[in-house]
Each structure stands twice: as C-alpha cells, then as structure tokens.
Amino acid sequence: MAAAKCCRWPKTRSEAPWPSFAASKAVFDRVVPYQTTSEDLRGLIIDPAITPSPQILTCPDIVSLFMPNSSFSLKDMDRGLRDCVADSSKCLAYQFRLERMEARRQGNFILDVLSFVRRTHQTGWRFNALVVIVDDVVVYKLCGGTPRVDEHLYRRNPLGPLQEPAEMVRDAGVISIL
Prior knowledge:
By secondary structure, this protein is an alpha+beta fold. It has a domain at about 10-100 and about 125-150. The chain contains 7 helices and 5 strands, in the order αβααβααβαββα. Strands 1, 2, 3, 4 and 5 form a 5-stranded antiparallel sheet that branches. A hairpin with a 2-residue loop joins strand 4 and strand 5 (about 135-155).
C-alpha cells in the first residue's frame, strides 16, 4: 500500500558532451569567426559526427532564419552571414540543441501508471548554438539557451487509460527499458 502513495522514478536524458551550461558556453566562446577552422571545431567536439543531434543548414536555411520577411535585407545581416550568402555553394552551418535533463515522475504510482494524473519535475539545462562555415572557416557564431531549467509538468486525463491507449503502450515500453 505504501507504493501506491507516492513514487519517484528517475529518468535522465543527457545529450550534451559537456557537463554544464557554463562548460558548453566556454567551449563555444573559444570559436572565433574568421580564425577557427573546421578542424579546430572537431578538436573542440563541435562536429556533427561527434556532437549529438546536429542540424545541418544550407544557405537557403540561413537566409530564411535571418531574413524571415522582405523587411530585412542582406545589408542588415552580420558580415559572416553576408559572406555565406555571397558564396552559397561553399556555405554550411551547424545548429546544435544540446541539453542535460533529469526528469522525475512524482505522485501516486497507480494514478500515474494508469495515466489519470502524471506529475513530472524536470531539472537541468539547454544550450543552443549556430556555427556558420564558409570554405572550412567559421564566419559566424551564435549561442544561447536556458542555463537552469526547473519545470513542473502536470497532465490530467479524466478517462485515464481509455483516453490515450496508444500512449499507455508507449509508456509501458519506456518503463520496461528503464
């Protein structure tokens, strides 16, 4: 009966090669536009072959990202981005969305398993970075994110397992993997 009162299931998701937001930022701070090469990035573990979940952007992706509508012009862009657009065949960008999160399910075990009520407490950090490369030299960089994540998620399903049966099967698979 004590198990039905309260439970805490640790569930950790760690995708970042660095232990903290500050460490991630420190690595990206070492990237200097017009000096850092693609080889230097690999040495810093900023490489789509090594760093998890990279998004590879092309010149048109960059234009749509930094010029969302016709009120923006090329002259409004940073020099590195203008160089990318000018030499689009040699331009490549990597966008990284890194995080280190821990999620703990809290509350009544039975209500959680049957999907009536689910409470989750998430802590950790998220780091986003963009590196633009022309001719194997970084010409632009941008980084930001959330240094401290502390979120409480609450989901209530009045019909419990009848409301979302597919989700219950998916969650059962996740629990068995853990």
